[in-house]
Amino acid sequence: EKGGFEHFMLKEIFEQPRSIADSMRGRVRAEEEHLQLGGLRDYLGQLAASERVVIVGCGTSWHAGLVAEYIFEELARIPVEVEYASEFRYRNPIIKERDVVIAISQSGETADTLAAIELAKSKGATIFGVCNVVGSSIARTAHAGAYTHAGPEIGVASTKAFTAQVTVLTLMALSAAQQKGTISNTVFRQLLAELERIPALVEKVLRDAQKVKEIAYIFTYARNFIYLGRGLNFPVALEGALKLKEISYIHAEGYPAAEMKHGPIALIDEDMPVVVIATKDSSYEKVVSNIQEIKARKGRVIAVVTEGDSHIREMVDFVIEIPNVHEMLMPLISVIPLQLLSYYIAVMRGRNVDQPRNLAKSVTVE
Ligand code: M6R
Prior knowledge:
The protein is 46% helix and 16% strand.
């Protein structure tokens, strides 16, 4: 059942070329400039006309929401707020009838997320669900939605569900942008074409898994880790840190790279590994300066870079190269080496990767 893999988590990481493709199947045909999410059809106008989108979720699903925030705001020009479901529901949130709430949940059973959407629904908001489990409670409670077609996810650490969520949310943002007219035909076409290339690019990153394993070996006994990224790679940094914490039990924190100088940089010394996502995008130069700040304090830097980047290679301890893609889609690629890094470190530490201590696959308690 693990398809020849040692753990479900590794199998699920390697399934991503397929699960991402499945989440686009029948929805995207770049050649014909076709994009349609069946489950949104009757509600697309409402999404495009919404004054505000509130995204709720927990854990990894919340991270997918943070990625979606950048994409929705950039492409569809709709203000987005991303909330932890557990915070949202307990503080008498301001919800108006023209608000759209998007609930993200792999299991569709997370108690706090379910309660958050019931609250928003009672205040008149329209609810969209982005769930992986068909017929789950959240999917049934939502007015409309789009399933992620990741297939069953068994490992407690969410991997293929995350990339499927980001894929579907990107399609939602693109649909809203097209409906609103906030995206040019050229960019629309380009993004659809790039989306279709994603499965092959993920495949390419997976072919370099051995390289990540070698780095994991070196850092197996680290006691702490910091993950940094900017822009769309900031939520990826949070996700990388969460993956490491939950399956290896190493303390890890994710930060927006520029926040370092506001406190966390005090933690940097020769014992602190820092994973920096430093792909060639609009914040590249800024991230390069952040790397310099860390190296000046003797931190050990593992940089995830765009292939062919020789500049960063000279500055850091280790590089992991990933293929280039449109900035909006980069999280789908940049998260892959971080999933692998946490997996290999956890295995080398002898952890129960698929069922880490104290955790359940779906959190149905409040
Ligand atoms: O099923 P959900 O997406 O609602 O679950 C949310 C979180 O419990 C989940 O993402 C959790 O953080 C994962 N174990 C992270 O890998």
